[in-house]
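Can't paste images in this forum, so I'm doing it all in text. The chain is below; anyone willing to post the predicted structure tokens underneath?
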Amino acid sequence: MPVITCIEDLKRMHRRRTPRMFFDYCESGSYSEQTFRDNCSDFQQIRLRQKVAVDMLGRSTRSTMIGQEVAMPVALAPVGLTGMQCADGEIKAARAAEAFGVPYTLSTMSICSVEDVAAATTKPFWFQLYVMKDEEFVDSMLERAKRAGCSALVLTLDLQILGQRHKDLKNGLSAPPKMTLPVMMDLATKWGWGLEMLKTPRRTFGNIVGHAKGVGDTTSLASWTAEQFDPQLDWGKIARLRDKWGGKLILKGILDEEDARRAADFGADAIIVSNHGGRQLDGALSSIRMLPPIVRAVGDQVEIHMDGGIRSGQDVLKALAMGAKGTYIGRSYIYGLGAMGEAGVRRALEVIWKELDVSMALCGEKDVKALGPHNLLVPQDFEGRWA
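Text version of the structure:
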């Protein structure tokens, strides 16, 4: 077992073990990838205030997210094709999250279905919904998530139209992968991944194939998904889905103060400040840069979560100190999953928890809920001056 000290260690292992198209799917953004890069690099501009001579015994990272007790305010974000990073990836990630005591969010575009994950876990998880034109499928998907015991709906608002990711097009991304010569040459060097995949029947989108009208195999799936994301999604349609769901609702993809105010007035249980990991609107500001103005706009009206660029416990600390009540990791846990399966996801969570705990202590805080702007040194022009 290699010594793993940081998320970057898991990323290197993930790259070696996972087919190129799926590693690139994880490690890419849209167009020039400016926003993808800024999500991480903007965290580095924020510094921590060291405090000394403070009793550090009895520290706690425990908190709540939408009323749910969590071991630390970190959830596993919804990531499509997780079951292509590692065989039965969604099941393994959900189990790791459950064991650690943090929420797991299953993507609509998962390989393992919502029923698969429910059968393999003992506690409720969250379900993320992409709004499709096929209203019958969407309503059925909500009912399936209810039957599976999902305790919250994460409604993604920033994927009405799919942003172009150059690497996915060049790699011919598909699930399962099409056996072209370049793909076969790549897979020949990833035999461990391939052997695990041969042992599972789950190799395509489990929530869709056999459930969406006219989608019975991977051939029909490709044409269906290409035209199904709903470009007419508006607040009226969001209200219909809220009423149809009837439970805890989290709105994901908020990156603007006006949109945040609308979401708060709408009655969401939480909003996620997010730019889809830099995979949609390239050139948008990073999530951490947009967090402070959104907190100022609606911080006392709705629970604010933050997603994008988190690669360490210190990143979690910074987001919490800037006003987020919860954070999400996507790529950070996918690196672990691709590297070592369920054990890798657990290791990613352990790395982030340890760094959060130690850094919190050195900042003079015993309780994660006490973190605030007083723990940070933020450049005066961090939010920028934009005309």
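The first helix runs from residue 7 to 17. The chain has a mean pLDDT of 96.
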